[in-house]
Amino acid sequence: MKTLKRIAAGILSTALLLGMTSCAAKETETSADANVDAAAAFTTVESGKLIMATNAFFPPYEYYEGDKIVGIDVEIATAVADKLGLELVIEDVEFDSIIAGVQSGKYDIGCAGMTVTEDRLKSVNFSTPYATGIQSIIVAADSEITDIDTLVSGDYKVGVQSGTTGDIYMTEEVGEERIERFAKGNDAIIALTSGKISAVVIDNEPAKAFVAANDGLKILETPYTVEDYAMAINKDNEALKDAINQALKELTDDGTIAAIINKYIPAEG
Ligand code: ARG
User: Fold this and answer.
1) Is ligand 1 within 6 A of the CB of residue 113?
2) Are 96 and 77 contained in the same domain?
3) Residues 168, 106: one domain?
4) In Å, what is the CA distance from 154 to each residue of 145, 148, 192, 193?
5) Are residues 155 and 212 located together in one domain of the fold?
6) What are the tens digits of pLDDT across the range 85-141?
7) pTM, 2 dp
């Protein structure tokens, strides 16, 4: 029951965001030159470059293949940068330093499977959402934890990636003393496999990748919340946000974004 309510709230916020998005898109369409004007007006941290901050331990959105960072976010950001005539530069940093870095003008965008939240909107702007995520609960295959309510009501320790929505929600649910924060999702998984913690709450696609790569883990069938992923942009750079949204709209309309997501997350069924 509790869980259902949480999901309903997530879907509501998605609907609101999509509503906002379509209004904004209509406005740009009324002026034929809007795209050109926006493209001419925006500035970036370094001319000719689009500097993207991410945390590259979050498959399939961003992860290392050898010493190269690849994934859904990298491909979408590259396609956006191409449209803006910019070269994408990726900086792999701690997840919980991304918003501050965008806010202080160190990076042009934060693109990290980053969820749009009310709180983050106080510090940065977000682009149009380009994907959705669900918070999932990972436990040992033989765990007695069956859903969010058994997890919350027991005395279990919960692992999260520091500063993520999983961290924010679970801290609220179980309190500081039962939360173990890790710099990388994978470090939380290692603590789970070694029995130091009883569950990890993290976004569903990385959860699937981590469970596939480690024996003896499972994802609970009860999804926790639904969230929108978008790019974080400095609040003073409305022109860059407009240009990025225009690029995202074109990449959505011509099927590029769906194709990128499909390549990494083959449609089920
Ligand atoms: N969606 C979650 C959030 O925004 C987790 C994102 C973690 N991303 C990463 N690249 N490590 O808080």
Assistant:
1) yes
2) yes
3) no
4) 9, 10, 16, 19
5) yes
6) 999 999 999 999 999 999 999 999 999 999 999 999 999 999 999 999 999 999 999
7) 0.85
